[in-house]
């Protein structure tokens, strides 16, 4: 019998595959504008969960779990500079949602 935790873990792994393999065209700023979270947020949540479970983890370790490689490497390979339009949309979203 598959547990809820196993199903949640499988869905989480699929989300990471989608973000880091299938949709590399979607930048973190786009995710922040549209969904209010990004890959870095997932890493922060992962780190918080690890620490709550008694497993100390730093930001870079968590990001490597989420990105599947060191963040600096992922950033150099896949992250593009934000456009003025993206920055304006991000700022508007932050104001609207109190960020």
UniProtKB/TrEMBL annotation:
Residues 26-91 form the SMc04008-like domain. The lineage of its organism: Bacteria, Pseudomonadati, Pseudomonadota, Gammaproteobacteria, Lysobacterales. This is Deoxycytidine triphosphate deaminase. It comes from the Bacteria. SUPFAM superfamilies: SMc04008-like (SSF158757). InterPro entries: SMc04008-like_domain, SMc04008-like_sf. It comes from Pseudoxanthomonas dokdonensis.
